[in-house]
Amino acid sequence: MRDDSHAASGEIDIYVSCGRGAEVYFAIEAKRLRVQYARGRLEAGSNEYVDEGMIRFVSGQYAPYMRAGAMLGYVFDGNTDKARQGIDRAVQSKAEKLKLMPPHKLVPSEILTDQPIDETSHILEKHIFTVYHVLLAV
After folding, report:
1. How far apart are CA 106 and CA 44, in angstroms?
2. What is d(CA 84, CA 63) in angstroms, rounded to the nearest whole number?
């Protein structure tokens, strides 16, 4: 049993169960990216994506027994390339905190080579954890 008394608040946004028990699932955390506000301010959301999203996988708050999970970025201005660049900068600057394996950045997915999906690999206490990064223009 995990002690969640010091865990960050939040719940998994999308939970895909395979029917093999409560601890066997694929977790997807969603974040808003590149939101343009009425007064012209653009909020990139890259730091929140890392600090309030990816870190929940690394800390074990989400999917502690799994080997993979996903981040889903809703890109409100439609510019997924700019969103990807911003996330990559945030990931690189927080590589140690994220326990990233080299090359310490987003890399094209090895299993979804025909899709614009990236991945990062993280060295956790008992195993390697892969985060898949899916960005959708909305």
Report:
1. 17
2. 24
Burial group, residue 20, by CB count within 10 angstroms (0-12, 13-18, 19+): exposed
Q: How many helices (H) and strands (E) would you count in the chain?
A: 3, 8
- pLDDT tens digits, 48-75: 999 999 999 999 999 999 999 999 999 9
Burial of 135: CB neighbours in 10 Å, binned 0-12, 13-18, 19+: buried
Rounded Cα gap, residues 54 and 51, in angstroms: 7
Task: Give dist(CA 131, CA 125) in Å, integer.
Answer: 16
What tens digit of pLDDT does each residue of 78-126 get?
Answer: 999 999 999 999 999 999 999 999 999 999 998 888 899 999 999 999 9
Q: Among candidates 11, 93, 85, 80, which has minimal Cα distance to 52?
A: 11
